[in-house]
Design a protein that fits this description.
Shape: globular
Strand order of the largest sheet: 4-1-6-5
Radius of gyration: 15 Å
Distance between the termini: 32 Å
Number of strands: 7
CATH topology: Nucleoside Triphosphate Pyrophosphohydrolase
Number of helices: 3
CATH architecture: Alpha-Beta Complex
Helix content: 10-25%
Largest sheet: 4 strands, mixed
Strand content: 25-35%
CATH class: Alpha Beta
Structural class: alpha+beta
């Protein structure tokens, strides 16, 4: 395994059938809320990355067939505060979106080095609370992906 993170990651929206979305507050983030995220390790399949990150960050053990690959990716600039985790010269990351439906909001087991709090919020509130545009746009797409309703226009930045 490299000393640097790969600039390839996953975003996993964990939600209930009623569209309450799990958000995690980043450790040291001063109110930076997000869904489960994480970088691919070695040459692992992205679905494996998503399931690993869900387990590491929440303690939820999900089966592969419960995970939905949206076949959607976003490329974005890595914020300077996190750029040192990547090889010199790496400035962008490509994030792949997945979702995982759980029966109801549950207490999660946080990875203390990564997150300090967890909240289950209605999707509209969750979308307004996250700091990342990719996370916000994915949450805004959630009811449309699940219910076949036309998608709203997205910001893309």
């Amino acid at each position: 395994m490299s000393e640097y993170k790969q600039p390839v990651s996953v975003l996993v929206l964990i939600h209930t059938p009623g569209l309450d979305v799990l958000l995690l507050e980043r450790a040291g983030g001063n109110g930076l809320w997000q869904s489960v995220t994480g970088s691919r390790e070695d040459d692992e399949n992205l679905a494996v990355t998503a399931l690993r990150e869900v387990a590491e960050e929440t303690g939820i053990q999900a089966s592969p067939d419960a995970l939905v690959d949206w076949r959607l990716s976003n490329r974005f600039v890595i914020l300077p505060r996190w750029r040192g985790r990547y090889a010199p010269g790496v400035t962008h990351n490509t994030e792949h979106v997945f979702s995982l439906c759980v029966p109801e909001p549950a207490t999660v087991q946080l990875a203390a080095e990564e997150h300090t709090a967890a909240l289950w919020l209605p999707w509209q509130v969750a979308a307004a609370k996250v700091f990342s545009w990719t996370n916000r746009d994915a949450i805004r797409l959630l009811p449309h992906r699940l219910n076949g309703v036309p998608q709203p226009p997205l910001s893309g930045a």
